[in-house]
Design a protein that fits this description.
GO terms for molecular function: RNA binding; structural constituent of ribosome. The chain has 136 residues and is α+β, with helices and mostly antiparallel strands. Helices cover 28% and strands 21% of the residues.
Length: 136
Amino acid sequence: FIQTHPKMTTIVPKTSRDNVYRFFFTEGVLNCPKNPLGKWRAVLGGKHIEVPCIQVMYLMKQLKSKGLLKEQFAWRHFYWFLNDAGVAFMRKYLFLAENVVPNTQRKPEKEENFERRPQREGEERRGGRGGRGAGR
């Protein structure tokens, strides 16, 4: 999973860990290229975050071993998704209230102003402009 290289370190500074965890909790999902020498970049609340990919992969490996997230790999990119246990852990780590949830778990707000188009004369309820039997 993570290859060792003389220039790579797996010791993650607290600021990097806090930034990655805060972004991960806010979005509910995190992706990172499988390039240990590369940089992971994100924007959270107008603040630009840049952390070495090896550190992000190491943090996610730790969370995965605790069963706090789901990992998916496709096209040389890792995708991590928080589960319910992970949300509880992040709330505790980041000192957040119980009512704060990640963006992926928020329910979309319904629009109350939705109105149907008035039905035209001669237009049937189904297939008013044609359909299966129209051309036969």
